[in-house]
Each structure stands twice: as C-alpha cells, then as structure tokens.
Amino acid sequence: MTSPHAHTRPALQASGISAGMGLMLLAMLITPLIDVFSKLATANASPTLITMVRFIVQGLCMLPIVLWTGSWRNFSWELSFYHAIRAAVITLSMICFVATLAVMEVADAVAIFFVEPIILTVMSSIFLKEIIGWRRYTACGVGFLGAMIVIRPSFQEIGYIAVLPVVTAFGVAVFALMTRALAHRENPWSMQFQMSLWGIPISGALLLIGHVSGIEFMAPSIPDLTTTTWMVGVGTVAALSGLLAVYAYRAAPASVIAPLQYFEIVSATLLGWLVFGDFPGPVKWLGISIIIGSGLYIIWRERRAASLKPVTNSEHTVVSP
Q1: Which of 267, 256, 259 has its CA nearest to residue 31?
Q2: Which among 66, 70, 58, 60 has a CA at the least distance from the CA of 240?
Q3: How far is CA 217 from CA 10, 96, 98, 131, 189, in A?
Q4: How far apart are CA 249 and CA 257, in angstroms?
Q5: What is the CB neighbour count within 10 angstroms for residue 178?
Q6: Per-residue pLDDT tens over the stretch 225-263
Q7: Residue 170 in 3-state DSSP?
Q8: What's the CA dihedral at 114, 260, 234, 198 to 10 degrees?
Q9: Which of 101, 112, 155, 209 has its CA 20 to 30 A from that of 130?
Q10: What is the mean pLDDT of residues 7-19?
Q11: Radius of gyration of the chain (CA)
Q12: Alpha-carbon gap, residue 191 to 180, rounded angstroms
C-alpha cells in the first residue's frame, strides 16, 4: 500500500530547493548595495571607519537573533584567540576592498574578488589536505588568468591598488578556512556575532593608529548625515544579505545554491551602471566571463567529488567584502 505522504515528500523537497534558490538570488541581488554604499561613503569617510560602522550595525542587527535563538550560550570563550584572528583577517580584507572601491568600478572589484573560491580551493588542498585533481587546478589557473585580464586595464588606470581585490579574496579565503575549522564546535550565528564583536575594537585600534600616524585610509573623522546614512546602509545590507544566504543554504543543498553567488557580478554591474554610470568594456567582460566559467566548473567538480562521499550536514557562514 502506498503511503499518503509518498507524493508530498518530493514536492516539499522541491519547494525547499526553490525557496533556497529564491533566497540566494535575493541575497545576491542586494549584496552589491554594500559596495555601492561603501563607495559613496568613501567621499567623506576612510575605509577603516566605514568598516567599523559596518561591524557595529551588523552586530546590532544580529543581536536579537543571537538572543532569540540562544546562540550566545554557545560562545566558546576558550576559542576567543581564534575568533580574534578571524576578525582581524576579515577586517583587513574589508578595509582593502573598500579602499579599492574608492577608485575602482564596482563591477571590476567584485569580479576580481570572485577569485576567492579559486584561492580557497588551492588553500584547502595545501592546509586541509583535500584531494584536488588536475582539472580543478587547471580551472584555478584559468580563473587567475581571467582576473589578470580584468586587472590589467584597471592597473593602467589606478596602479597597484587594482590588486587589492585579490588581497581581499586571499583574506576571505583564510577566513573561510578558519570558519571550517571552527564550524563543528560553534553555532554559525554565534560565530557571525563574535566576528562583529571582535571587528569593532580591531577597527577602532586601527583608527587610533591612523589618527596618530596620519595614514589617510585609517583616519577617523566625524561624518556628515549623508555619509552616516551610507555607512549604516552598508551594515544593514550586510546583515540582511548574510541572513538570507544562511537560510538559503539551510533550505537547499550547497551544490545548488553555490553557483547562484555569481549572480552578484550581474547585479553589481547593473547597480554600478545605474548609480555611477560605469560599465565594463569588452576586454573586462572577457575576463569576467573566464572567472565565472572557472568558478562554476570548480563548483561542478566539487559537487561530483562530494557525490562519492557520505552525505553530511554542514553549516555555512557567508561574508561579503
């Protein structure tokens, strides 16, 4: 006899996958607003100040979730040193990216940053001893070639600062490795919240150094109302997009959700054109296409490799630069 629920389970599963895809697409649609607001704020605020305000707003937005879910009970204070290192890495990465946005087109910076999955693949092979075949290594090399194609005209225009998105990508990859190492011991909400808690004093210390030394990109200032609005917008959108991405990964398999992250390049290009009138030229589109193609191929190969292993549940921590 057929169970009355036999036909509802696939429907429910399909519904969950559709919901997860919808949440991720929405997250990627709004995520470039972080970069747009950051770029607007750089007119009157340093990248370090923008980053600090982002952490403050993100922390305030996440506080109700941490209290409601009881995630604060899962804080592992004995791991505080590692959380501090994670926060320092992501803080410096964000500062580098915001400094880039001050002089580079949003779409270019975002596209170059998307070598991060490629860097993470290589680092996972080195430090986590994950088995990476020659196909994925080749895709990584091709992806870096695509990044160089995008960087070259930008390098001619703005100099070495065009390389900073790669520095950001490297930092986020290190952050992701540390997150993987800690994920089995901590709740993802508590990890996200502690990142903000540590990020505030770290960026505050950098502002103090900037004040004493006169280093411009770390200098503190008293922003006007408009600049404050942009900075609050950065933190609010970062919290919202992170929330949407986490729930997207909970609703659908990572193998389905991960490729949708590249939609961020499309929305970043659209917003960059609408707000700043910037649009990538043919050469940059070639590089962007190579980066996207390489990243999608790596995801596809990882999906095939994962299908040969026992299925496990995993939590995902999503951070945008």
Answers
A1: 267
A2: 58
A3: 53, 9, 10, 40, 30
A4: 7
A5: 18
A6: 999 999 999 999 999 998 898 888 888 777 677 788 888
A7: helix
A8: -70
A9: 112
A10: 61
A11: 20
A12: 11
